What does this fold into?
Amino acid sequence: MTGMAQGFDYVVVGGGTAGCVLAARLSEDPQRRVCLLEAGGSGKSLYVNMPGAIVMAQRSDALNWRFQTVPQAQLNGRRIGVPRGRGLGGSALINGMVYFRGNPRDYDAWAAAGATGWSYGEVLPYFRKSEDNANFGPSVYHGRGGPMHVRSVTRPNPLNFAFFEALSGLGVPARVDLNSEDSEGHSLRQLSIRGGTRQTTAGAMLAPAMKRPNLVVMTNARATKLLLEGQRVVGVEALTEQGLVTVRAHREVVLSAGAIQSPQLLLLSGIGDGEHLAEIGIGLRHHLPGVGRNLHDHVASPVHRSMDHPASYGMSWRALPRNLFNLAEYALLRRGPLANNIFESAAFVKTLPGLDRPDVQLVFQAAKRPSPSFPFPLGHGFAVSPVSLYPRSRGRLTLASPDPLAAPLIDPNLLSVPEDVEPLLRGIRLARQVFESPSFARYGAQETAPGAGIVSDEQLVEYIRAEAYTVHHPVSTCRMGSDASAVVDPQLRVAGLQGLRVADASVFPSIIGGNTNAAVIMVAEKAADLILGKPPLAPTLFDPQ
It folds into this structure.
């Protein structure tokens, strides 16, 4: 069955973090008709709503595309999970709800690399525009009254303060606000949580906009091809429960399907590297070799400790009364540990002298690692995951076949640049120093990974190759820039085509030094102004410390 949907001014492909922002902002003008296509469902789930149920949300097939990389040569041939959100809200349905923007110098580096208009001073107003920060706004760095509620961790586990004490003893400074003039230091996290419930752009921005008659949201509508007339994109073909439909766009199509599925749709539409498309059997419509290239992600390698002391989050007979109280507290009042994520604090550190910004994030977890068969930690312990913030390795996303329902081939080429392992080595050694400090001695915890006998660089590199994973921040597969190899220009227009833009993490010129969700919201806010022809928000005068 093939059908024709009514034409729209704008068609947004992908109802994730960016797509929900764009649908809401573009439909603010009642004279413009907007259609949002989302391949998944409503995204509504108890696992999504309850912040403490992160693992349950990630393990849900209804909420997660559950992609995997191809075997990674430098990680012992392992396939690494690439969770991507499925449903309105996108990957914010299953992420850690961390609101962190990266380091200000990251955006100045974007501008210096050809992303004109994307320096920190120029993007900061767009961060503030969407933000409703309960702890730090309004200020030069933070907004108050925007649709996205942000707050710091409430009632953190006491182990977080042992983490801070140990870091201070090692010379890592405390920082009240990690989203300020610099990210170096340790602090409690800022989270996208409102009233004890996960906050996504689907709930905060799209849901109110869905009352507008000029906005149509189609769920379970999987885009399979972009439609071109000459060099102009004029619509989208999508597979729905009723069959194949065509949705026309009179003004523009905007891809916001994320760093995996935006380049996949371009390739399925014949837009990409001609040689690769010929191999797959897809006719070339527009040769654009950069599509799918420059794929990279943050890599982490954890240090775990186990203990009998019940201070951490976890299930045990000693902790049973507290766990039952916490469950009731959340059910009745939406408060307590289940109203936070378990990754309540972090530190951004320079592991070498002379760096202009932190190169490693230490993510602290006041709980043991959940088992593969059970979503909550059994017993007690804690962990630090050192994350390498600026990997040099670059990979590529390609198609496995011309079938639009087949998963793409995802090859981030992790640790292919030998130097990429070095920040992880330094991070593991620093994490061990933290855990050997007097502030943790009272808990009597023992290292379970890498293990006390793993001490040499060679042994630790073997451990990294056996256990490292990504922290689910894929970027740059439709890289923004001003050079010939870029996929989109600084106005997010796809090079050489008309009527098509991309606005999501795939356009990042390079990865930022931390979690990516807040930056994706910013990209979408700025993209909406670019699409509507509005003047940019006045830049903030800013001098990084």
User: Anything to note?
Assistant: The mean pLDDT is 96. The first helix runs from residue 17 to 26.
